[in-house]
Design goal:
It is built from three helices and four strands. By secondary structure, the protein is mainly alpha-helical. The chain has one domain. The protein is elongated and about 55 Å long. The chain starts with a helix and ends with a strand.
């Protein structure tokens, strides 16, 4: 994805445009955020699996009905939580 974004950025600059136009004129930003969310999800699952194998306790997700500071919500829809 990074390679495609860089190719598109170079094409815009070559045609006399502003590199910032890349994010305004297309769906690149949404696609990029989606990939970042997938990567964060993958790494969170890896951390949790390793902790379970090593029998290390994981932080509580909620403390008194408030999301723990150890977790963060997804940037796209807020329904997924990541360590």
């Amino acid at each position: 994805m990074d390679r495609e974004v860089n190719i598109e950025r170079r094409r815009i600059i070559k045609n006399g445009g502003d590199a910032a136009d890349l994010w305004e004129d297309s769906n690149w930003q949404f696609d990029y955020m989606s990939l970042e969310e997938d990567e964060a999800s993958f790494h969170s699952r890896q951390i949790l699996e390793r902790a379970r194998k090593l029998r290390i306790s994981t932080p509580l997700m909620f403390e008194d009905h408030v999301l723990s500071a150890d977790y963060q919500r997804s940037g796209l829809n807020g329904h997924h939580l990541f360590l």
